[in-house]
Amino acid sequence: MGQLKIAIEQVTPFQQNCAFIWDDETLHGVVIDPGGDVDRLLETAAATGITVDRILLTHGHIDHAGGAARLRDALSAKQAAPVEIWGPDERDRFLLDGLQVTGEGYGITDARAFLPDRWLAEGDRVEIAGHDFEVLHCPGHTPGHIVFVARDLGFGIVGDVLFRGSVGRTDFPYGDSAALLRSIREKLMVLDDRTVFICGHGARSTIGTERQTNPFLVEGA
Q1: Sequential pLDDT tens for the chain (221 residues)
Q2: Which of 7, 150, 163, 164 is most buried per CB count within 10 Å?
Q3: How far apart are CA 178 and CA 6, in angstroms?
Q4: Going from the N-terminus, what domains does the chain have, and what CATH number goes with each?
């Protein structure tokens, strides 16, 4: 097993962090949250030389999932083998069903509604570049939001649950700020402080940094 390699492409007008994660020896990996700009994502896949085993989604928002169906089809054709979409939790199905309409509202014309090949749920395990990642259900930003954590690596992909210095939005009809903070405290703040995480927007951080400095989490804030 080689080293874990990561490339981030910021996609859509929302500057969402689409992550390519692969093993530098086998060159097999995944794409997480391809929200759009699919042509650029295909160029990144070609430049790295990786074989994409699957596409993973943390949740169903347009900036995270809008390009998934098109990317799946293009990669499947290029690699001459099916590339599956896994995730999010099925409670985000209504968001995936509405991707095309939502995209049109934001001027994103190539978003397509789809259903994943596999829904993911709390306690599932997913292999990413030869490493075992645990699936944690972290609702609040969306009902079916999940995160991927490899405790042995001290590494996670948390989507729009937790950011450097902030937390995910909950000002949607289905948002729940109490559930979001509970997800963060019960699922993420129990991880080792040295755990590095990639979030859906902005710079990466560590659990320890957010525990000490995040205004939404600091005791007494």
Answers
A1: 678 999 999 999 999 999 999 999 999 999 999 999 999 999 999 999 999 999 999 999 999 999 999 999 999 999 999 999 999 999 999 999 999 999 998 888 889 999 999 999 999 999 999 999 999 999 999 999 999 999 999 999 999 999 999 999 999 999 999 999 999 999 999 999 999 999 999 999 999 999 999 999 987 44
A2: 163
A3: 32
A4: 4-213 (3.60.15.10)
The model's pTM: 0.97
Residues constituting the chain: 221
Cα separation, 68 vs 59, whole angstroms: 12
